[in-house]
Predict the structure.
Amino acid sequence: MPSPVQIYQLQAVTNANHQGVQVGLVEHIDDVANFLDKTGLGVACMTLVIVGGASGLDDDQQTQLDGLFRRVLAPLAQEMQLYVVDGGTDAGVMRLMGQARAAINGDFPLIGVAPQALVNLPDQPVSHPDASTLEPNHTHCILVPGEQWGDESRWISEIATYLSGKHESMTILINGGSVTVRDAYASVAAGREIVIIAGTGRIADDIVNALRYKVVEGKSVDDPRLAKLIDTSDELLTAIDLDNRPADFIQDLKTLLME
């Protein structure tokens, strides 16, 4: 059975569209629908999944990516009233997504999905050395079974499928490491298109290079992390350069999402 939903106000209220993070624990995928119904997410709509770097982003990368979130991803989600799903913790791309929502006074739902054993709540601390805290600008967080980062990858994908229903969904992949590879495979397994933001470093650029080797140059992919992803799913993978003008970036994402 899902746990009762708890609401945590993790910071001073500065945005009337944010009344705290609604947090619930689910033990089985069948519990997800119950959580969504209880927290106002029971009506399906188009969904954006954000995956990528957490602790692996340095200060320069975070500064560089801040514009992407504040000028492209958050405005897109606001305009189209998308559900946005990510890992929910106060680090990397998840922090940037939460801060961008706050910066534009957004009211779109921002849903985190993270392993219960790795998330410190104000009244329920955990002892894991790699534990994190919730990003305070998220509207919802679903805590799922898991003992290590990456255990949430399948859940993120399946929850996005629940949220989107018969509507379209899309994954945005930015920077990232080994967990992001798991996220990518989970999206592909769900048949979800992945937009890789080229120029953001690490696994994102590795995927873009592997795509170029296979699609443009006709070469095989040697990286064992990516070979199957590229060889079997390249039709679901699209690269967009980070340096695109925001207006063009938004239009490209709209077009891909509506296809």
Notes: The first helix runs from residue 32 to 38.
